[in-house]
Amino acid sequence: MPGADGLPPEEGAPRALYDGTPVTLVHVVRHGEVHNPERVLYGRLPGYHLSELGQEMARATAEHLSGRPITHVVSSPLERARETAAPIAAAHDLEVATDPLLTESGNVFQGETLNRRMLADPRHWAAFVNPLRPSWGEPYSEIADRMRRALDEARGRAEGREAVMVSHQLPIWTLRRAVEGRRLWHHPRRRQCSLASVTTVLFHGQLPVRVMYAEPAGHLLAEAVDVTGEASEVAP
């Protein structure tokens, strides 16, 4: 059966075009739901793990990728990402590598409790002076740069086959916009990057030629409670 790239999954020789150019796929996975009953904007804070539903989401994504010729799995160092990567790697008898380039974006609201009053507080207004940068956190250009470097590293390690990177919503969405040549500034509510989703980049050699998207845990999203815990989702 054809795979996400329209080609049959190959368990043997690496994929290549007729001229020998390697064909590589990198699946960029967002972590599953996090246990966060206090609705803290956890950002890069340690100690935030997948909920039971998040673990189910991770298993659904692992099943979705189980038939793929994946040879490399790398994750953000944060717990929720590593826990999402674990069943994916296990399905292919691989270890999970970690890469700090895949970590969550920096944000001045990290550690605060999410509520509408937070955005109306005059103490926070200075953080919203430039939504194009953005002024409340790590610049989009810096996120795009580090994610592109992580993507190129994963592509090189899996050349002719497939790799998985597990990261966070804003870094993944910024990466996608960069690969597609779109402006990096955007509204958070318009991101196509749900929990445990898979954004796949198809490479011909070193050139990204197509981006695809899937939601293998889509049937579980209606049950999700914590969908706003990442500090990257704060915007005016």
Tell me what the structure shows.
This is Broad specificity phosphatase-like protein. GO terms for molecular function: phosphatase activity. InterPro entries: His_Pase_superF_clade-1, His_PPase_superfam, PGM_Phosphatase. By secondary structure, the chain is an alpha/beta fold. It has one domain: Phosphoglycerate mutase-like (Rossmann fold, 3-Layer(aba) Sandwich), CATH 3.40.50.1240. Helices cover 25% and strands 16% of the residues. Mean pLDDT is 85; it is low at 1-5 and 231-236.
Quick overview:
The protein has a single domain, classed as Rossmann fold, CATH 3.40.50.1240. It is 25% helix and 16% strand. The chain has helices spanning 52-64, 79-90, 116-120, 140-157, 169-179, and strands spanning 23-30, 70-75, 96-98, 162-167, 198-204, 207-214.
